């Protein structure tokens, strides 16, 4: 049973009469017209032709209705889209604390006032350009396996970006999405856990979608990029969000049903780090060595020049040529 007018118009992909919509949704034709007006106010372009009916011409670039109609059901319980939030991760965490948040809920924002990056950094989040989204999971994973959620999200995002834009993105350990040696996106995972079980995991995804060079702060222009800059084409945020959710669902099911090894293998295939000489900065410590592998918990195994191996759980990596 379709949920709303957008579902019907999208499925039909042609003019759809008011009478049919009213019959399918069990509402009056006047109510159909009222909903069309309210959808137009939200940015949908819906043509109305008296003898033919309604045609969905264009959806807003980031639209809760559109995303829900494509992605809700299956794994995703609730999907919320906001204009401006402090941080989608923070909002998900605070709603979960008040028990206002169901597991497998997605929070998306057009912009963030205090977007958070890894290692306490700021994630610059201007409106109208990018994807800022957080997924709240209640995964019943062992705490030591929580990093799998970050890895799976990175894998899912690379597949989604490839599908929507054709770009082949790779993953720089632990979770940077990179292309042409520049950062296109990142993932920030925050968890609430008991000693052995994860109770809540919030996976924050930031992807630079339609940023132009001048939209980036000058100091990061040489190290950051966007889908638009790399492909030369505008990319629909709606379609990308929907594809990211599809891919996350796919790899989440893979993790739950098949365990972590298929996922670890997938991550290794997409990695731009393994087999390279790298510099790792961990607070004040700097290590140089070969990024040999990741272990079963997603930790980087670094082979130092001395031959000793170190397992690293967090840090900043630079690839050395
Ligand atoms: C990184 O530093 O690479 C991780 C960046 C993660 C940014 C995203 S944007 C959506 C979510 N909300 C936040 O405040 N941060 C994450």
Structure in words:
The protein is of the alpha+beta class and about 325 residues long. The strands form three sheets. A seven-stranded mixed β-sheet has the order 3-4-5-9-8-7-6, with helices on both faces. A five-stranded antiparallel β-sheet has the order 13-12-11-10-14, with no helix packed on it. Strands 1-2 form a two-stranded antiparallel ribbon. Helix 4 runs parallel beside helix 8 (about 235-260). It has helices at about 5-10, 20-25, 30-40, 65-70, 90-95, 145-165, 225-230, 235-260, 260-270; strands at about 45-50, 55-60, 80-85, 105-110, 130-135, 170, 175-180, 180-195, 200-205, 275-280, 285-295, 300-305, 310, 315-320. It is about 30% helix and about 30% strand. The model has no long low-confidence stretch (mean pLDDT about 90). The site of biotin (BTN) has 20 residues, from helix 5, strand 5, strand 8 and strand 9.
């Amino acid at each position: 049973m379709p949920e709303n007018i957008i579902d019907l118009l999208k499925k039909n992909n042609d003019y759809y009469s008011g009478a049919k919509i009213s019959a399918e949704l069990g509402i009056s034709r006047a109510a159909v017209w009222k909903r069309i007006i309210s959808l137009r106010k939200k940015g949908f372009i819906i043509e109305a032709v008296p003898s033919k009916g309604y045609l969905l011409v264009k959806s807003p670039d980031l639209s809760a209705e559109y995303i829900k109609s494509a992605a809700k059901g299956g794994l995703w319980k609730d999907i919320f889209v906001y204009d401006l939030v402090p941080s989608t991760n923070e909002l998900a965490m605070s709603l979960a604390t008040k028990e206002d948040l169901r597991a497998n809920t997605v929070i998306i924002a057009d912009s963030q006032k205090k977007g958070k990056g890894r290692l306490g950094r700021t994630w610059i989040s201007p409106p109208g350009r990018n994807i800022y989204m957080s997924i709240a999971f209640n995964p019943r994973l062992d705490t030591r396996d929580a990093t799998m959620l970050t890895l799976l999200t990175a894998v899912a995002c690379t597949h989604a970006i490839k599908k929507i834009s054709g770009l082949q993105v790779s993953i720089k350990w632990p979770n940077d999405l990179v292309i042409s040696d520049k950062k296109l996106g990142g993932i920030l995972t925050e968890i609430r856990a008991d000693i052995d079980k994860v109770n809540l995991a919030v996976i924050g995804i930031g992807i630079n979608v339609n940023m132009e060079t001048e939209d980036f702060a000058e100091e990061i222009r040489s190290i950051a990029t966007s889908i638009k800059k790399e492909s030369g084409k505008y990319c629909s945020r709606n379609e990308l969000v929907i594809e990211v959710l599809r891919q996350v669902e796919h790899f989440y099911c893979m993790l739950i049903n098949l365990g972590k090894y298929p996922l670890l293998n997938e991550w290794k295939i997409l990695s731009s780090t393994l087999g390279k000489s790298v510099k790792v900065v961990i607070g004040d410590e700097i290590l140089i060595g070969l990024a040999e592998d990741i272990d079963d918990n997603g930790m980087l195994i670094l082979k130092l020049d001395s031959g000793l191996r170190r397992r690293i759980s967090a840090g900043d990596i630079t690839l050395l040529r």
